[in-house]
Amino acid sequence: MGVDAPRSGAWLPRDIWVLVGASFVIAIGYGIVAPALPTFARTFDVGVTAASLVVSAFAVLRTVFAPVSGRLVARLGELRVFCAGLVIVGVSSGACAVATTYWQLLLFRSIGGIGSTMFTVSAASLLIRIAPPSIRGRASGAWSTGFLLGNILGPAVGGMLIELSPRAPFLIYAVLLLVAAAISGGLLWGRAGEPAPQAEATAGPGVFGVLLRHPSFRAALTSNFVNGWTVYGVRIALVPLLVVEVLGYESLWSGVALAAFAAGTAVTLLPGGLLADRRGRRPPILVGTATVALTAMWLGLSGSVAGLVTASLLSGVGTGLVNPPVTASVGDVITAQGSPTTAGPALAGFQMVGDVGAIVGPVLCGAAAELVGYPSAFALTAVIASVSFGFWLRAPETLPR
């Protein structure tokens, strides 16, 4: 059975909302675990570095296993890999809850990174395939909103669960993921389609190489690198230090600044997707990327908490405008250049570029902050965003007319 076509005037088809709901459940579970993980690791009498390694191991395994996830999607189909990824992370999270040594915790959490990249790559591929170009921006915006809201609510719930037991968040996360796998698989099975018979033969690293020749796909890679660099790297690593060490405020204000960024992103994800579907992918990307570059400079030069919070809010606005049309543009290129059922390897490479940005950004900007000061560190971020802006200036529009 095929995917339901969107009715005239309909916002999004049901299958898209199933993915959005799953993204929210996944993200809120991840947010529940996030504040508990280093605290739980410390209960095994290890130092801060060892506790941080448990966090990093998850990200490292995500990055390393991404190409394999892409090939699995091409061979087995998105839905099978998506559900299998959820089950792997759910089981590994449950295993973390009963770990009796630090090394068990490290192993179980690392295995979770493998499942995480499986459901991330497969969900993106499935979203691109079942969302026609006319609603692809809105579908991407709704999907990203589900993740964002889950990441906002999750840490608050996780903080309360830690008071009960440092193991409780892992058990809750495991249950949420297993439920999400069962519901998503039940609702989408037989509706999302199966991989084409030739998918295994044609899919592979060559798919990424072919798409890399397209200027819009190259531009999308730079956007994802900037997103990883700023959203998952520099924002978390440097803004709290800027608040305390430079501005001299209590760390409470770093939370306010991060919340302002999330709020700015939340209010523009859906409008960004709507603009991408109605006006084209490039306009919101160009406006959003320019906003990210300018606000990065503003953050580095902030002399007050009011300026910091305002710059964070506007930076979130820029990020929200960029993400849905970038995902939609990647989907447009994949659909135009070949079969969407062979998109796994290309999306795996796309994800890896963002992960590399999240790893490299904090290191380079942290070194710049130490050597020449925080304004230079944030200026480096502005330069990276400006390079992406230049790529999009030369990239063609991908929205089919």
Mean pLDDT: 84
Written as H for each helix and E for each strand, in order along the chain, the element string is HHHHHHHHHHHHHHH
Low-confidence stretches: 1-10, 196-204
Biggest sheet descriptor: none
Number of strands: 0
Structural class: mainly alpha
The CATH superfamily of the largest domain turns out to be: MFS general substrate transporter like domains
Shape: globular
CATH architect. name of the largest domain: Up-down Bundle
Q: Treating each run of at least 4 consecutive H or I residues as one helix, how many helices? A: 15
Number of domains: 2
CATH topology of the largest domain: Growth Hormone, Chain: A
Can you tell me the CATH class of the largest domain? Mainly Alpha
Helix proportion: over 70%
Q: Alpha-carbon distance between the termini?
A: 28 Å
Instruction: Tell me the quaternary state.
Output: single chain
How much of the polypeptide forms β-strand, as a percent range? under 5%
Radius of gyration, in angstroms, nearest whole number: 20 Å
